[in-house]
Automatic annotation (TrEMBL):
InterPro entries: DUF347. Keywords: Membrane, Transmembrane, Transmembrane helix. Signal peptide: none annotated. The chain crosses the membrane at residues 12-38, 45-62, 74-93, 113-133, 145-175, 196-220. This is Membrane-anchored protein. Pfam families: DUF347. It comes from the Bacteria.
């Protein structure tokens, strides 16, 4: 849901409100910096702080790709490849320094910084890859959403069959972004462009409402909080 809001929310601010890609990116990046600072200062998992940061990272990741594509006219093939290389480099450095990529080992600020850097580039890569599949390759929103959902299902099956837990987690995480983008475009774009015509406002508000409800539940449900078992950070 957060990845869908990243797509529709960015489109709403940049296009429908008329802020443009540059101003939207600057405003969202500033809000992300504040949210990330609060998140890094927290000594434990706090649902509303964490998920606010995730939503803002999703929007900023979308804006990075849109800026390259729309303003700088970088091809989706090139941006997808560049973000894939950048993400692979982050994982390589993270593993070299910490000897693990498991999210369950994020108990220090340095590991958390690696984590958020990886998340930002998974969203940027997912946006570029999703646009590449649905637009440049002509799959369309319907086929794109089904295709990425199928890939996540395949990763889940691989996990169930005993594939590496950390590897399958990150593959699935990367795929949630193009799935969310395709699904968001399918719901929000006009019928002339292959969407359902619900609009970015309605789609964003609907998904944000569900996200807020889930975060409230996580914040106040004692059993839900205990089941997360997130360790303190050093």
């Amino acid at each position: 849901m957060s990845t869908t809001v990243g797509e529709t929310g960015a489109d709403y601010l940049a296009v429908h409100i008329g802020l443009g890609t540059s101003i939207t990116g600057l405003v969202m990046a500033s809000l992300l910096a504040v949210a990330l600072l609060v998140q890094l200062r927290a000594d434990r998992y706090v649902p509303w702080i964490y998920w606010l940061t995730v939503v803002l990272v999703s929007i900023v990741g979308t804006e990075i790709t849109d800026a390259l594509t729309d303003r700088l006219e970088v091809s989706l093939y090139a941006s997808t490849a560049a973000f894939a290389i950048a993400l692979a480099a982050i994982f390589a450095v993270w593993f070299k320094v910490e000897r693990t990529l498991s999210i369950h080992s994020i108990v220090t600020t340095r590991r958390e910084l690696f984590y958020w850097a990886a998340i930002l580039f998974t969203f940027a890569l997912g946006t570029a890859g999703g646009d590449l599949a649905t637009e440049a390759l002509g799959l369309g929103f319907n086929v794109g959403a089904v295709a990425f959902a199928g890939l996540i299902a395949a990763v889940t099956a691989a996990y169930a069959l005993g594939a590496n837990t950390v590897l399958t987690f990150w593959f699935a995480y990367i795929l949630t972004r193009p799935l969310g983008a395709s699904f968001g475009d399918l719901l929000s774009q006009s019928r002339d462009y292959g969407g359902l015509g619900l609009g970015t406002i309605s789609t964003s508000l609907a998904f944000l409402t569900v996200i807020v409800a889930l975060v409230v539940w996580l914040s106040f449900d004692g059993d839900a909080g205990r089941n997360l078992k997130v360790p303190l950070k050093d």
